[in-house]
Amino acid sequence: RHKDPFGQFHWLEKALQWLRHAQVADGLGKPKALITGHIPPTLDNYHFAPLWSEEFVDRYMDLVAMYDDVVAAQMFAHTHCDTFRLVPSRNST
Known about the structure:
The chain has helices at 8-21, 54-66; strands spanning 33-37, 71-76. It contains 2 helices and 2 strands; from the N terminus they run H-E-H-E.
């Protein structure tokens, strides 16, 4: 099994690192990331089966938690129904 299919986690981490250190010249604040994807790292709405492998969910959620100062939102599709889900923060106490 692949730990990082097609280098996607490596790419995401590098992009988030870049955003964290990016300087905005006009004083509008730090840039933020809007992560979009087709298949969400959650359970299927109809069969409640995982849509991602657990190892990929863990890696993705670790990255989002590590860069929560940069990630403004995550938006996914694929579920064929209108849902709004909140994922608990791994950084909350």
